[in-house]
């Protein structure tokens, strides 16, 4: 399949109106090219394989950067990329994976929007002899042999980092040393509102889990400061929902000390809701957010956010590397967590490089 045809397919895939045409086109390609993959097919050389990739959508600046990283890395390595945007629907992802199987791509990679419901389609990929790489979000599946490996973020660790920042923030400094300035007294308990990501996604589940684990461990060790999650609801990783959700929460609760938000888009929406009511983000309410988009780093520098936990979107090169190995029949590591940083008000913020998303 020529790269211009692939490029054409990608362009069609971005337009919902043409989605039907895309499936039809793929079916035609399959029937014209006959059974391309055979048991004795020679393994492709580096960069000469076809990768079917199902992305979940374009819900955030983070996600757009993630998509760009994959497309750039495919172009750099000469990988033929068949790219689908599922527009936040698992059923679209399943259809896309089925079309990759029908086309007999060399490798399938996808970002699972939620963690469950993948068994049947993964069994179909296995039966067709096509290796599958899971990217960014994890899946929850009994037979782990149904996929080759995972590349992405460590969501449990991100949640842990968020809680660790809060413990540092609300733990009074050593008052035995009179020369040391003490912070203003901590609220007791510290009341936390959580804006959670897409319900059922591994990132939402694990960011919540890591956060709670550290707070529970802290509770066993010391009685002060104590933390209480007074409310948690999904804002679906969207700025608009972050705004709506926070507006509703502010109508109900008037004594919130912390917002723990699973992504920057929701945080930026929540900040708008706070400002509208004359609440100063970062001062009246402490804000911890995940992703590290430029807009969140700028808010951190302005003092409107207190801690930003990086979620690394630059998965493209690693995906191409692992997919290339799989296409050649080589083994890959089972899990690759990307390196991720924490930026907070305790750091020298002048050193942060432009984020690029
Ligand atoms: O799966 C990663 C998450 O999805 C990012 O934190 C969020 O911004 C994105 O939409």
Explained architecture:
The chain has 2 domains: 3-151 and 313-337, Rossmann fold, CATH 3.40.50; 155-311, Response regulator (Rossmann fold), CATH 3.40.50.2300. Helix 7 links the parallel strand 6 (190-196) and strand 7. The longest helix has 20 residues, at 202-221. It has 357 residues and is α/β, with parallel strands linked by helices. The strands form 2 sheets. A 6-stranded parallel β-sheet has the order 2-1-3-4-5-11, sandwiched between helices. Strands 7-6-8-9-10-12 form a 6-stranded mixed β-sheet, sandwiched between helices. Helix 6 runs parallel beside helix 7. It is built from 11 helices and 12 strands. The structure holds alpha-L-arabinofuranose (AHR). Residues 59-60, 62-63, 136-137, 203, 237, 263, 265, 290-291, 311 line the site of alpha-L-arabinofuranose.
Supply the CATH superfamily name of the largest domain.
Response regulator
Distance between the termini: 32 Å
The helix/strand order is: HHEHEHEHEEHEHEHEHEHEHEE
Task: Please state the average pLDDT score.
Answer: 88
Strand order of the largest sheet: 2-1-3-4-5-11
Bound molecules: alpha-L-arabinofuranose
Shape category? elongated
Q: Got a strand count?
A: 12
Strand content: 15-25%
Helix content: 40-55%
Q: Name the CATH architecture of the largest domain.
A: 3-Layer(aba) Sandwich
Secondary-structure-based class equals alpha/beta
């Amino acid at each position: 399949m020529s790269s211009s045809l692939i490029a054409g397919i990608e362009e069609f895939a971005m337009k919902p109106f043409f989605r039907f045409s895309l499936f039809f086109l793929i079916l035609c390609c399959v029937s014209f090219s006959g059974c391309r993959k055979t048991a004795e097919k020679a393994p492709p050389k580096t960069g000469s394989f076809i990768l079917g990739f199902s992305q979940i959508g374009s819900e955030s600046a983070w996600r757009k950067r993630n998509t760009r990283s994959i497309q750039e890395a495919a172009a750099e390595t000469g990988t033929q990329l068949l790219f689908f945007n599922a527009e936040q629907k698992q059923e679209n992802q399943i259809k896309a994976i089925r079309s990759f199987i029908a086309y007999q791509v060399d490798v399938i990679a996808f970002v699972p929007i939620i963690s469950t419901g993948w068994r049947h389609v993964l069994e179909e990929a296995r039966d067709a002899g096509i290796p599958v790489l899971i990217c960014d979000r994890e899946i929850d599946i009994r037979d782990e042999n149904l996929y080759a490996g995972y590349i992405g973020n460590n969501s449990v660790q991100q949640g842990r980092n968020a809680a660790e920042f809060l413990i540092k923030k609300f733990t009074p400094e050593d008052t035995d040393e009179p020369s040391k300035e003490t912070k203003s007294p901590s609220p007791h308990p510290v009341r936390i509102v959580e804006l959670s990501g897409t319900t059922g996604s591994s990132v939402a589940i694990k960011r919540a889990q890591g956060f709670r684990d550290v707070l529970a461990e802290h509770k066993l060790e010391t009685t002060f400061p104590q933390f209480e999650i007074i409310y948690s609801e999904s804002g679906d990783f969207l700025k608009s929902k972050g705004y709506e959700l926070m507006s509703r929460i502010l109508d109900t609760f008037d004594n919130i000390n912390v917002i723990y938000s699973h992504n920057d888009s929701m945080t930026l929406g929540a900040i708008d809701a706070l400002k509208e009511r004359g609440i100063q983000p970062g001062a009246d309410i402490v804000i911890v957010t995940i992703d590290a988009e430029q807009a969140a780093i700028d808010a951190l520098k302005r003092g409107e956010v207190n801690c930003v936990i990086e979620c690394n979107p630059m998965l493209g090169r690693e995906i191409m590397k692992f997919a290339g190995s799989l296409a050649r029949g080589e083994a890959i590591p089972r899990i690759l967590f990307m390196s991720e940083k924490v930026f907070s008000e305790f750091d020298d913020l002048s050193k942060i490089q432009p984020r690029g998303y």
